[in-house]
Amino acid sequence: MEELKKVYFIAKKDMGAYYLKPPLISWGLMLPIVFVLAFYFRNPAGIKEVVPGLIGLTLLFSCTSMAAIVITFEKRIGALERLLLAPLEIRTILFGKTLGSSVFGLVITIVITIFLIPIIGLSINYPFSFSLIIILSGIAFSLLGILISVGVKEVFEAMTMSNFFRFPMIFLCGVFFPVPSMPFPLPILSYLLPLTYTVDGLKHCLLEDKGMIPFYLDLLILLGFVFLLFSLSLFIFKKRIRQEF
Q1: Which end of the chain has fewer CB atoms < 10 Å from its terminal CB, N or C?
Q2: With contact defined as beta carbons under 8 Å apart, do 10 and 93 qualify?
Q3: 185-204, pLDDT tens digit by residue?
Q4: pTM
Q5: How far are the Cα atoms of 48, 101, 136, 172 from residue 186, in angstroms, in the given order?
């Protein structure tokens, strides 16, 4: 319970300092709205097919927007050093950072979903499954951002690296094009990226089981990404601390 309290207060501090700011909130809300309008005006009849991908993109960009730079930024201003001097485990710091980023991403995604679903004329067929997929995906995407943040030294490097991962996912993860229809070897790359399993799981929940992978496998693979990304983040973070502090 003591560790959970520490995680909560780290997340609360990050929410107040970074996430609950008008520029970040507006960015999180405007990006998916722009995508929706662009595809709606292009093909109104086919907009339903891309809604799972748009929700997945919203979650990806919202969860990684600040997570990818938060640790690097706190190194620059000395806030990270104060955290490291506190009686906190390194994994507790990472858990707190991940929680703050995940909560922000999930809130933005839920707002967009509530706005989008009735307008497009869809419904969430399996609410519990939908909740599981976005929670696991949010944690995985936040940890992807944290991994980037602990792996670079400067904020501009973190921003560049996050876009290096995020923008290829838009085209490789089944957001707008079905993965099986892509030319070889692009499907292999798709299956190595977490957003693929998010979009597939959301298709199960929103498009009457049109996903290509069994839903339980989507969840298990996303859970595997969570453990892998956290382990890598923890390893690199400890290594960086020994080198820089």
Answers
A1: N
A2: yes
A3: 888 999 999 999 999 999 99
A4: 0.90
A5: 24, 30, 24, 7
